[in-house]
Design goal:
The protein is α/β, with parallel strands linked by helices and 271 residues long. The protein has one domain: Ribokinase (UDP-N-acetylmuramoyl-L-alanine:D-glutamate ligase), CATH 3.40.1190. It has a 9-stranded mixed beta sheet, with helices on both faces. Strand 8 and strand 9 form a beta hairpin. Helix 5 packs across helix 6 and helix 7 packs antiparallel against helix 8. 48% of the residues are buried. GO terms for molecular function: ATP binding; hydroxymethylpyrimidine kinase activity; phosphomethylpyrimidine kinase activity. Belongs to the ThiD family.
């Protein structure tokens, strides 16, 4: 029997019991983008829209075992990483990924949850910068994450460019610095710095809402899904930008804190 032509995409991240971020958001996004989703769970969180109440890391050996199970049976077309707990988990992921380095890797360098709870130990930032991030085809930091990775303050679009250049100097190839945390009250400008140095600015209207739980996970997962289907980095990022804008714009009104986005909004808009 011939192998399936359905793109198969893997997410390596933490579980969000509230369903709006992490593994749950990634798998919802994969389904909406017509790819088959698989998962390696790095941590179990007790989490809802108001915050993170607890984090229980999955033992590293079990993380490796999950990954080995997936790679031994599925034709993985792209990989996305999210919450990786600490530097030891990042090193483990980097070690395994080097064996399948031809598969496009998208890294969402998850550091802080929407409610302010830290999701990455400070000591892990250097591991992300020096060991894991250079392996990625695309890395998608928001402004606070880009500031940590580039070790500089970002107060302007010029600073965003400088930070992206610094990240490329450390080995990162294609960088999307998301402008949602910027000072512009009316627009969110994302910078896509391609590996050839080309700068592409993606502008969208800023949506006045607190229903943004899981936006970073969803955005990166959509990029991975599109790369898994064979699209270019630029095409994948542009699609992800439209997807997440629709998800934020058509929020669900769920929970009492930073509510989740609407993963089916983009599809509904295009039916």
């Amino acid at each position: 029997m011939s192998k399936s032509k359905i793109p198969q995409v893997l997410t390596i991240a933490g579980s969000d019991s509230g369903g709006g971020a992490g593994i749950q958001a990634d798998l919802k996004t994969f389904q909406e983008r017509d790819v088959f989703g698989m998962s390696v769970i790095t941590a179990i969180t007790a989490q809802n829209t108001t915050g993170v109440q607890g984090v229980h890391p999955v033992p590293i050996e079990m993380v490796k075992q999950q990954w080995a199970s997936v790679l031994s049976d599925f034709d993985v077309a792209a990989i996305k990483t999210g919450m990786l707990v600490n530097g030891e988990y990042m090193k483990a992921v980097a070690e395994v990924y080097k064996e399948v380095a031809s598969i496009p890797l998208v890294i969402d360098p998850v550091m802080i949850a929407k409610g302010g709870h830290p999701l990455m130990e400070k000591s892990a930032v250097s591991v992300m910068r020096e060991i894991l991030a250079p392996l990625a085809m695309v890395i998608t930091p928001n402004i606070p994450e880009a500031e940590a990775l580039a070790d500089m303050s970002i107060l302007s679009k010029e600073d965003m460019v400088k930070a992206a250049e610094r990240l490329q100097e450390t080995g990162c190839r294609n960088i999307v610095i998301k402008g949602g945390h910027a000072v512009d009250a009316s627009h969110a400008d994302d910078l896509l710095m391609l590996e050839n140095g080309e700068q592409i600015w993606l502008r969208s209207e800023r949506i006045d809402t607190k229903e943004t739980h899981g936006t970073g996970c969803t955005f990166a997962a959509c990029i991975a899904a599109e790369l898994g289907k064979g699209h270019s980095v630029e095409e994948s990022v542009r699609t992800a930008k439209k997807f997440i804008q629709a998800a934020i714009r058509s929020h669900l009104g769920i929970g009492h804190g930073h509510g989740p986005t609407n993963h089916w909004a983009y599809r509904k808009e295009h039916e």
